[in-house]
Design brief:
The structure holds 2 protein chains of 2 kinds. By secondary structure, chain A is α/β, with parallel strands linked by helices. Chain A is built from 9 helices and 10 strands. Chain B has one domain: Rossmann fold (3-Layer(aba) Sandwich), CATH 3.40.50.180. A 7-stranded parallel beta sheet of chain B has the order 3-4-2-1-7-8-9, with helices on both faces. Chain B has a two-stranded antiparallel ribbon with strand order 5-6. The longest helix of chain B is centred in the middle third of the chain and has 12 residues. Chain B is globular. Classes of the chains: A alpha/beta, B alpha/beta. At the A-B interface, helix 2 of A face strand 5, strand 6 and helix 3 of B.
Chain lengths: 274, 188
């Protein structure tokens, strides 16, 4: 039982958010949630979490900015280049044996990882046969992912990451720059479905050959991590691949037995055949 | 109140400073030590391996959702924040850098202050920025103890100076004094 009033207030706010709007953060790792809610409270000018909760319950207009605080994450294209190199060199050869592919970027945030995959698949000759599912619970993030527009000052990092991942083309082939922004080509979105989906409350929606979900599970507590991993297991085809963040692992999960290490250092797993 | 845990933050000059403190802790040291050192995001951090070789206590890189154990030093991995949960387990986060830093000393200290309250000892060492000052203040407000490396002897004075300015009640000690203090801290 929480001893501090603030912790009680946070639990009540999260309960209210769930009952009123069906967004469920009750099983997120609490230390980060608290930090983010404190930011929201300060920047929105509330004196307490209770006051913020009262407003949130009555004003649906507050929901999006609240979700912004609770879910926003800054990602990069080809973040952890060695991960994408492993996808390219170790996973892609297996994917080539399928006539059609479905891949799922779970928790796609602003779309950086999605575009990384589409570009990689184009370079590897796999894009045409692939349907990409990009999901997130944050509508603003999905809209941003669908727009594919990033600040130009981030492009140098993206370009460097792409090169390190073994990129076979120039990243500049895929965007046009204007007014300090890089706008990614709409042809990259041809085979992409953007969708609102929650790993906390939603279910399986298609059978995937590859799921990439990086730096999402660290925000969940253990039982919720298990729920999400169970969802991934049920969504993957036999011998399908699961990629997690560099500090995430199946080691402590109830579902560890359903997967085998495929590229251990990169946290790429393969669903067992049985 | 009997101390339960130690958090340490260090930046420029961290390696030398930590080399005075952590290897001096005895094998039967009972408290956990959580450490944030500012390291470049694209580097795989080798701090844990480096220190394990010369320490009596266990040293490792922190893993997400790992329960905190006494007699163990945990280093935050490069490019992740390290936090302590109320149930005394560790969690990592990918949230935006704080004061250009990820891992951030403030993030670790503030979450640990929440989890341990008066049982926490916060230590700010050498560094060339302001990270750790707010965090150390949170440690004090929660009733914990605050220690700052004396800026005159620090490789980079800015971080200890900022911490002292934010926490006037903090003890200001040399590295050797901090080491001696920690060795005896379980008897206090």
């Amino acid at each position: 039982m929480p001893e501090k009033i603030e912790d009680i207030e946070i639990q009540l706010l999260l309960e209210g958010l769930y009952q009123r709007y069906h967004y469920d953060f009750r099983h997120y790792a609490q230390a980060s949630v608290k930090r983010r809610l404190k930011q929201a409270r300060e920047q929105m000018g509330f004196t307490s979490f209770s006051a913020m909760q009262a407003s949130l319950l009555r004003d649906p207009g507050m929901l999006n900015s609240m979700l912004g605080y609770l879910t926003v994450q800054v990602s990069e294209m080809f973040r952890d280049p060695s991960y994408f190199q492993a996808i390219r060199e170790k996973v892609a050869p297996h994917l080539r044996t399928y006539p059609s592919l479905k891949i799922w970027i779970a928790g796609c945030s602003g779309g950086e990882e999605l575009y990384s995959f589409v570009i990689l698949f184009r370079e590897e000759g796999l894009e045409q046969r692939t349907m990409f599912y990009a999901t997130d619970i944050n509508q603003d993030a999905l809209a941003k992912a669908e727009a594919g527009i990033y600040d130009l000052d981030r492009i140098q990092l993206f370009t460097e990451n792409h090169r390190k991942s073994g990129g076979k083309s120039s990243l500049s082939d895929y965007y046009s720059a204007a007014y300090g922004k890089a706008s990614f080509d709409k042809s990259l979105r041809k085979n992409v479905v953007f969708s609102d989906h929650s790993l906390v409350t939603d279910a399986v929606f298609a059978e995937m050959q590859l799921i990439s979900c990086r730096n999402v599970l660290i925000y969940f507590d253990r039982p919720l991590q298990d729920r999400a991993l169970g969802l991934f297991r049920d969504s993957l085809a036999r011998k399908g691949f699961l990629g997690l963040g560099s500090k995430e692992s199946l080691r402590f999960s109830n579902h560890a037995g359903a997967f085998t290490d495929f590229v251990r250092d990169e946290k790429i797993y393969q669903k067992s055949a049985v | 109140m009997q101390p339960e845990a130690i958090v340490i933050g260090a930046s420029a000059g961290a390696l030398e400073a930590l080399s005075v403190i952590i290897p001096s802790l005895p094998a039967d040291f009972g408290l956990p030590v959580m450490v944030v050192v500012h390291v470049p995001a694209d580097k795989k951090s080798i701090l844990a391996e480096l220190f394990q070789a010369k320490c009596n206590i266990q040293v490792r890189e922190a893993e997400d959702k790992e329960p905190v154990r006494g007699g163990t030093a945990y280093f935050a991995p490069a490019d992740y924040h390290l936090l302590v949960e109320a149930d005394k387990s560790l969690s990592l986060s990918n949230d935006e850098p704080v004061l250009y830093s990820r891992p951030s000393v403030d993030v670790l200290f503030e979450s640990a202050a929440d989890a341990y309250g008066p049982g926490l000892i916060g230590i700010v060492l050498t560094g060339a920025n302001q990270d750790g000052a707010k965090g150390l203040n949170a440690v004090m407000r929660a009733g914990g103890r605050a220690i700052v490396q004396s800026p005159e002897a620090a490789y980079a004075a800015a971080m200890p100076e900022a911490a002292i300015a934010e926490c006037p009640g903090a003890r200001v000690l040399s590295l050797d004094e901090i080491a001696v203090y920690l060795q005896g801290v379980q008897d206090t």
